[in-house]
Amino acid sequence: MATETIQPVVGPVVGRIRPVGSKSLTNRALVAAGLAAGRSTLEGCLAGDDTRHMAEAWRQLGATVQWDEASGRIVVTGTGGRLAPGPRELFVGNAGTAMRFLTAVAAVGHGRYRLDGVPRMRERPIEDLLVALRALGVSAVSETGNGCPPVLVEAGGLGGGRVTVSGRISSQYLSGLLLAAPYAARDVEIVIDGDLVSKPYADMTCRLMADFGVEVENEEYRRFYVVAPSRYVARTYAVEPDATAATYFWAVAAMTGGSVTVEGLTADSAQGDVAFVHVLEQMGCRVESSPEGLTVHGPARLRGVTVDLNAMPDTALTLAVLALAADGPTCIRNVANLRVKETDRLAALAAELRKFGAAVDEAADSLTIRPPAILRGAAVATYDDHRMAMSFALAGLKAPGVSIVGAECVSKTFPDYFARLRNLVGA
């Protein structure tokens, strides 16, 4: 198990950085390219474990995938919707997007598809998606009957029709169904039961589908409609830098009173997590937008905030660590779905923040963090969760003696994160 020791910085950090390609856009683009007929070239892709699992799964499903990790270019010769028939075994590690998207995609094929992952993936719920697929005429079940992977899909093509999907746990169920819907035998109508969490991720899916030639009708996140059969069009597609990863570098500016520009992201990004800069504004930062990127200028002192992060729950980890350096308490609300991520992130955050001397009130869907008078160092457990590792590294910029135990987990989405962070802060 690798340990990274973080060195505090003295004075403001000033710099520029372009993070890795977006995990969310890379995996969505791989689905569209894998289903399209012909050759797609995806530029700027994430080189991480999640992408490797998705790429290998598409090879199993019959696509040709050529990946130059150094350049971030992936060339996909798609299946045209004619997936390699089962039986097929697809292993997705701990990639939630890959599990949810590929479960829906497997319904397009013919035969038996089994999808599995690491032990934590076997604890992550997927039953709502399986229920939806069964309503669309596909045999899709949890192998152990507990509503979690491994998943067995006995497919004979996706029939289509009308289906109701819960919006409360994960927008990835909706995104998976939408991505597969153009290859159904007839139109697909998806009705959302309850309020949809992480709405910007649904927007991202619809926008990417449009980029690949398929329009989605979205009626106020209550009803989605896809005309089928229709087809994705192979194309060249540039993947934006990862907006969630960008939050760590904007946070460097916020914590040190510095100025950091994230290149390649603008205010009209397809990724909802760019809106995190508005949370930083509430904390006292100044945000500057240009065609080249988004710059955050940190204040002399951060203010605590109360904020609803339901639309961008992954950024809650960045905010929770920033809260350690703020004046006054910070309350992060409406993020119950963090409990079904790579780990129970609310419980993990509470446990690790307390090591730094913070007082933390943990509720079912929220955290309230009261920073300590003196920030002390700590050995941070990562729970094999890449975002725990990357977020808590920020605390080491302010407090001496901070180490990240199990730091290798960043390979999931940002393998050289610690080197890039050290380079930015001049350590």
How would you describe this structure to a colleague?
The structure is a single chain. The chain has 2 domains: 3-20 and 243-425, UDP-n-acetylglucosamine1-carboxyvinyl-transferase, Chain (Alpha-beta prism), CATH 3.65.10; 81-226, Enolpyruvate transferase domain (UDP-n-acetylglucosamine1-carboxyvinyl-transferase, Chain). Helix content is 29%, strand content 26%. The protein has helices at residues 23-35, 49-60, 96-106, 127-135, 171-180, 199-211, 243-256, 276-282, 316-322, 345-355, 386-393, 417-425; strands at 3-6, 14-17, 37-43, 64-68, 73-79, 88-91, 110-116, 139-142, 151-156, 161-166, 188-193, 217-219, 223-226, 236-238, 259-263, 286-290, 293-297, 302-303, 306-308, 326-327, 330-333, 359-362, 367-370, 379-381, 402-405. The strands form 7 sheets. It has a 4-stranded mixed β-sheet, with helices on one face. The protein has a 4-stranded mixed β-sheet with strand order 4-5-3-14, covered by helices on one side. Strands 6-7-9-8 form a 4-stranded mixed β-sheet. Helix 11 links the parallel strand 24 and strand 25 (402-405). Helix 5 (171-180) packs parallel to helix 6. 54% of the residues are buried.
- The backbone outline, from C-alpha atoms, is globular
Task: Bin the helical content.
Answer: 25-40%
Given helix and strand content, the structural type is: alpha/beta
Rg from alpha-carbon coordinates? 21 Å
How many extended strands?
A: 25
- Residue windows where pLDDT falls under 50 for at least 5 positions: none
- Biggest sheet details: 4 strands, mixed
What's the end-to-end separation, in Å?
A: 23 Å
Number of domains: 2
Give the CATH level 1 class of the largest domain: Alpha Beta
For the largest sheet, list the strands in their spatial order: 2-15-17-16
The helix count comes to 12
Second rung of CATH, namely the architecture of the largest domain: Alpha-beta prism
What is the CATH fold-level name of the largest domain? UDP-n-acetylglucosamine1-carboxyvinyl-transferase, Chain
Question: Please, what is the CATH homologous superfamily of the largest domain?
Answer: Enolpyruvate transferase domain
**Oligomer kind:** single chain
Average pLDDT, all residues: 96
Proportion in β-strands: 25-35%
